[in-house]
Amino acid sequence: MPVLPLTAVFDDLPDPRRDTADKLHRLTDLLAIATCAVIGGAESWEAIAEYGRTKLFFPQLPHSHQLSALPPAEGELA
């Protein structure tokens, strides 16, 4: 079995969100971030969001340029 990027695992899932043009992130990216956050010890939605804000792997995601305007998290290097 070939090794796939984590986002590829979620590619075939239908997006249950309303079909609007203002979605900031692809569902596969959100699920990959949430998965990594939980593996990393996140136990709440707030912890998952904080993990996402740390931008640990956002440069690899297609919509990462939209996150560059976020201020660095406390203790994070800009």
Uncertain regions: pLDDT < 50 for 5+ in a row? 64-70
Classification by helices and strands: mainly alpha
* Helix and strand pattern: HHH
Binned, the helix content reads: 25-40%
Give the number of DSSP strands.
0
Span between termini: 39 Å
The major sheet is characterized as: none
Radius of gyration: 13 Å
* Mean pLDDT rating: 76
How many helical stretches?
A: 3
Shape: flat
Task: Note the beta-strand portion.
Answer: under 5%
What can you see in these coordinates?
The chain is mainly alpha-helical. It has a domain at 26-71. It is built from three helices and no strands. The protein has helices at 6-9, 27-39, 45-53. α2 (27-39) crosses α3. Residues 64-70 have low confidence and may be disordered.
Keywords:
0% strand; single chain; mainly alpha
TL;DR?
The chain is an all-alpha fold. The chain contains 3 helices and no strands.
Give the arrangement of secondary structure elements.
Elements lengths: L5 H4 L17 H13 L5 H9 L25
Helix pairs in contact: 2-3
